[in-house]
Amino acid sequence: MAIIDKIKAKAKADLKHIVLPEGEEVRNVQAAVMIRDQGLAKLTLLGDPAKVKEVAAGADLTDIEIVNPATSDKQALYAATLYDLRKAKGMTEEEAAQKVTDPMYYGIMMVKLGDADGLVSGAIHSTGDMLRPALQIIKSKPGMKTVSSCFLMELKDKSFGDDGVMIFSDCGVIPDPDAEQLANIALGAADSARSLAGMEPRVAMLSFSTKGSAKHDDVTKVQEATRIAHEMDPELELDGELQLDAALVEKVGQLKAPGSKVAGHANTLVFPDLGAGNIGYKLVQRLAHAEAYGPILQGIAKPCNDLSRGCSAEDIVATVAITACQAQA
Ligand code: ACO
User: Does pLDDT of 169 surpass 90?
Assistant: First the structure.
């Protein structure tokens, strides 16, 4: 079974409530109908009900909740809570009241206050416009300092990862992580391997050096991140620094990192920076024709996920199922 079908089956088994702030947008409405029909999540679309129905063009919206942030009776509570959370950062009561009429902020406040289990947005908002309120309001999980992201990859060559399934991280959020952030990325990626793919993570901290074969500040950073990650989670199967071939190919792993439980068998790849991660997942997606699902936020206290502005309704369905599985975890 394809990994996305396993994720959909998992989402169906324990229904979560997901909010779509871009409820007046056509792909979101089409996706909502598919999600309702497939029984993947309970949904709230944010927007003016008249506009949502116009966009639906006659499609049946039964059982899909539509909430208008501009007239909602939760507005006062959300504004007061937002003001409380952000007043130390200079937000005024008037600004908070204004912000919660914006569906993005309203949706984030629903998740923050437990009125929804997760949020999916980004078909019309930029990555930054979606991420910033999520980072400012939802914040990172207890024990984690850094929110980052991963891609769930499904390769045609089933000899890699766990039956072709791998986690690549961070491919979408932190441009130049320091060692502590990189350690947080590794632990977030390990969580993603468990919650999304049901895999026991074997995490490779990637570099252009294996076990001291090269000397450079960038290598030292990955070595330090490996040490911090071991301290944060001594039980986690994690090793570094490893070159990509040492991480993935058994013979190379045995040669370059003898005795390592991860080398040659990694299913979770942690890239040293966003340039490597973003280019790395796209190389595998394009040249190896792999399926790439993401970016999926990890290390965040409650699940919120971004969409590409070029996404299809089916992409939104997949992202909602992924978000629902994260909410279960
Ligand atoms: N983890 C936790 N909190 C964070 C993080 C993080 N990684 N980054 C920022 N924050 C918090 C800050 O602490 C701050 O909180 P505060 O206001 O309570 O003090 C708040 O978020 C805003 O921080 P800023 O530094 O002002 O955030 P910034 O404006 O730099 O935006 C963003 C953060 C949007 C994530 C930025 O880092 C970014 O643009 N990253 C790259 C995204 C990108 O372009 N990715 C590639 C495309 S995606 C793709 O191709 C798959």
Answer: yes
The full DSSP string for 112-163 is HTTSSSEEEE-SSS-HHHHHHHIIIII-BPTT----EEEEEEE-S-TTSTBT
Q: Is pLDDT at 104 greater than 90 in this prediction?
A: yes
SS3 318: helix
- Measured between alpha carbons, how far is 185 from 151 in angstroms, rounded to an integer? 12
Q: Which of 201, 208, 271, 207 is nearest to 238 (CA)?
A: 201
Which residue from 126, 173, 281 has its CB within 8 A of the most atoms of ligand 1, so it is best to mutate? 173
Q: Is 174 in the pocket of ligand 1 (CB under 6 A)?
A: yes
**Is the separation of the CB atoms in 185 and 172 below 8 Å?**
no
Task: Return the H-helix or E-strand segment holding 208.
Answer: none
Output the pTM of the full model.
Answer: 0.93
pLDDT in tens, 222-270: 999 999 999 999 999 999 999 999 999 999 999 999 999 999 999 999 9
Number of Cβ atoms within 10 Å of the Cβ of 216: 11
Ligand 1 centroid – CA 57 distance (Å): 37
pLDDT at 310: 86
Token couple for 38: 């497939």
Q: Could you tell me if 151 and 167 are in contact, meaning their C-beta atoms sit under 8 angstroms apart?
A: yes
Whether the per-residue pLDDT at 73 is higher than 90: the answer is: yes
Atom 51 of ligand 1, residue of closest alpha carbon: 172
